[in-house]
Structures are given as structure tokens and as C-alpha cells.
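Morning!

As promised:
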Amino acid sequence: MGEMIRATGLVKRYQKVEALAGLDLSVQEGRVLALLGPNGAGKTTAVRILSTLLKPDGGSAQVAGVDVAADPDGVRARIGLSGQYAAVDEYLTGYENLEMVGRLYGLGKQRSRERARELLERFDLAGAGDRPSKTYSGGMRRRLDLAGALVAEPPVLILDEPTTGLDVRSRQQMWGVIRELVSSGATLLLTTQYLEEADRLADEIVVIDHGRAIARGTADELKSQTGGERIEVVLTDVADRVAATAVLQAVAVGEVQADDNGRALTAAVDGGARALSGVLARFADDDIDVLDIGLRRPTLDDVFLSLTGRATADEASDAAATETTEEVPA
Amino acid sequence: MSAGPARAVTDGWIVAKRNLIKIKRVPEVLVFVLISPIMFVLLFAYVFGGAINPAGSVGYKEFLIGGIFAQTVVFGATFTGAGLAEDMQKGIIDRFRSLPMSSAAVLVGRTTSDVVYNILSLIIMALTGLLIGWRIREGVLDAAAGFLLLLVFAYAISWVMAWVGLLVPSVEVIQNASFIVIMPLTFVSNAFVPLESFSGALRHVVEWNPVSTLTQAARELFGNTDPRLPVSDAWSMQHPALYTLLWVVLILAVFVPLSVRQYQLSSSR
């Protein structure tokens, strides 16, 4: 089939706010695309348009070759959607939820029951399958929701922030499940706020901001733009700042960043652990004492900083406003 | 959105079953739904029963029951609106919207499951009525027709409140919104006081109010009318069952498409 998701020039406005300002996307069959961006960047809006929950104000989109505007039901029959807020009925048991979704996909009574049991088993929910989903933990509810998206074995899966709000263990578990799906050949579009998540799951990443794609590429390509890992240093004595900066600058990709009072320094490096041990040796030679030093993976903030020159946190307030508008169902 | 009345019925039934499961899981809701009709029957019979005695031999209790039945099933429609307003705020609605199901199914399901509530509350009210001296004085078939008419009319009003439920932003608003519609509808009628107590223009309103004709039809079918009371010569009161059914058809013809349209609109904004 080739291209399974295609969006061209998507525009969506909420009063004055432009949630999407001409977004283009393309996902080939069997590939995973991650839409990476901070809150309010337009990720959820894009997902809702592709899954026919929302009509765009401009542009067009096709999923599995079917146009979302011309044949929304055709699209619905070919996608599985799992949202940021688990779309499960809290009074129904896990089994009843899945059986109902199967029936509404038109699978028939027998098949719906089989699928419900299969999926509960597969998502490690068999033991809880006959309990109302109200009693589930956040991670279980999210897995049930994802199972709901898979009931009809749709060729295209759309996952909106599948791990936001989950604890570390549930997140790891969710990643495992998603990787399994991908290896079975599904085409997947997922949105995330975590660079690490996009890195682990996606073949290709589109970074979006203010409803527009600001960078595209593989995780490696993005990281080479951003620099790889970060060395973070907190100095014992601010007086060492100049000397320490010089040491870091020798191994850094781009400028060494300092916080406001100059005690915490951050340098993007390519060599990872090797660069870190080199820095430690130089610090020892030069008698520079540190309170804390460590290596960390680049975050979305780092990607943003290098792409836009500003941190994502600056937008927290207007982002929150946009996100609220997006979520109002009526 | 998915078309086809057949899918609307099958998908609607699946959603209705989901709504009914909630009754099983949260039986407290049911208790309150069923206690209020009992309260209505007892309060009106014993509090106002002494003060209002319009129907001579038949007695106020007997006169009252038809009115309470009508009032209660009409009030029950608030439930439809509230249930739907609640649905629209929940995550599950996103699941429904992303499925290739009939776009009328959520509405059909909700109005259908509320018929079950109404059947239960009619049974409870009838039993309470029988305990305090209400009697069915016509045939069983007539009485069955009376109950059926009450259910059909309630179903139509459910669709009005479904539409209201889709318009309001939250469940809290629906309670007030429904009072504005339902209070005058049931109180400017012959449900609690005889038609004769209204005069002038208001009397015409009462005569042509479908809640009056529903009440009148129920009284006639249960055999609770008093032959000594003057009979209204308005066409609506002469043919109360037929006139009520005409309203049912009219309401459904307007509010089914209106509600489905509103559901689709609120889905795609």
C-alpha cells in the first residue's frame, strides 16, 4: 500500500489560537512516526483530525488511502485510536469494554468475545478482566484502552501520548507492548513529549511547535543536531566557573550553557562516558571541586533549545490554554 | 457518519446494554430513581388528598394516579439529558466517535435504556397506588394500552432532553434546564388539579397540553374518570390518546434528527 498516513497543510484554529498552522505528515506502511512536541504544540489536534474526531479548517488527510473528510467511516474502520485520557467505561469490566468495542466495530458476538479474551491475556489483564475498570490502576487502564484500539486489528494505530502520566514501570511495560505491535507490522503514529520515548519507538520523528513541523528526521539525525548526551556539572565554588567552562568547552558540541548564578554548567557532548571521564580527569588536574557531575540523555527541552533557541517551559502558560481548548468535547 | 437505521438499532442496543450495566454496578442510582415516584404518590395522596377532592366518588387518589404517572415519566426524561451530558464529558465518547458505528447509536442507546428506568418506575408507582387504594377499573388490555402510551410519550420527551443534554456544557446545568421545560409542562395540566379549576386562556393551554391529554388518556384507560364531571369539548380532550400520539410523532420527527445532528456537530468541532 505504501503510504498509510498522509496529511497535507493541516490547519485548525480555535478562536485566535492557531493549533495547527499547515502541518504535513507522511508515514509509510509498517513504519512508526513520532510527533514530538511540548504541551499545546498541536499534537493532540493533529491526532484528532487524523482519527476523524475533528474537522480541519484547511488542508487534507488520508489514512490507509481513505480521505478523512470524504469517508470518515472508512477511516474509522481502518484505525485504532488510543488517547491520552483512557477511553474506557469505568463501570464496565475490562472484558465488557473490549467486547462492546468489538461489537461496535461490527465483529459479531462470537468474534468479539474471543478477541476480548485474547487481548486481556496479551495485555496482562486476564486476572482483572472481570472487575470493573474503575478498580484498575492508571497503567492497567491505559493498557485496556490500547487493547480497545487493537480489537479489530486495524492496519493503522494512532496513539496520543501513550505513556504520559504513567510511572516508570508502567511506561517500560507500555513500551514493550508498543514495540511488539510494531514488530507485527502495524503502521503507527504516536505523539509524545519525551525524546527518549520517540528515540526508543520511532523510525522517524517530526518535532512540532506552534502547529508547525520545525524538524524531521531519525532520532540519530535529530541528536546530531542537538548534540548527544549532556554533561551536567554543579561547582562547589563559583570562582572555578571560567576554568570549568574551558574544560567542558574542549569536549562540547556547541556552546556550554550556564545557569543564572553560574554554578551549574551543561555541555552537549558526543563521546558520552568517555567525554565524562576525560572531564573528570581534567577537573582533578586543575583542582576544580564539584558537588555533582553526571551524564544525561538529551531531553525535549534540549532539542527545543537547539532548534528554536528557547526552552519549552516558556510556553507553559499559553500551551495550557491551547490544550484546554482542544479537550472541550462539545 | 455511519448511516442506516439497522445499524442505529443494533449499535444503539449495544450502547443501551452498556448503560444498563451501570445500573447493576451502581444500584444506588436505581434506589433513588424508584423512591421518588413512591414519594410523589404518597405525598400527593395524603398531603393534598384532603384539600383537593375534585372527583366525587372516584376520589382524589384515584384521580391523582394517572397524573402522577404522567408527571413522573416526563420528569424521567431529565435522566436522559443528564446521562448524555455526562457521557459527552467522559473519555469513552472518544472511543465511540473513533469507531465505525452509527452516529445515532449513543442517543438511541441512552433513550432506550431510559425506557427500562421508566418501566421500573411505573411498576413501583402502580404497586404503591394499589396499596393506597387505586384500582384499575377497565380491562387489562386497556390498562396495558395506558401504560404503553405513558412509555411512548416518555420516550419522545427523552429525545427532547437528549437534545438539551447535548447543548448544555455540564450535567449540573441540565437539572435547571429541564425544570424550565418540564415544570410548566406538567403543572399547567390536569395532572394534579381538575381542568375546571383553570379559566380563560390558561384553560385552552391546559386542554391542548399533551401532558393533559396523556393524563386524560391514562385515566380513561385505567377507568379512573368520573362520569359526573363535566367533559371538555376540546378535540384534544375528546381524543386524548390519538392527540397524544400525534405529539409523539411530531416530537420524534423534530428531535431525533435535531439530536443526531447536534451529536455530530459536537463530535467534530
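Residues 314-330 of chain A have pLDDT under 50 and may be disordered.

Hope this helps with the figure draft.
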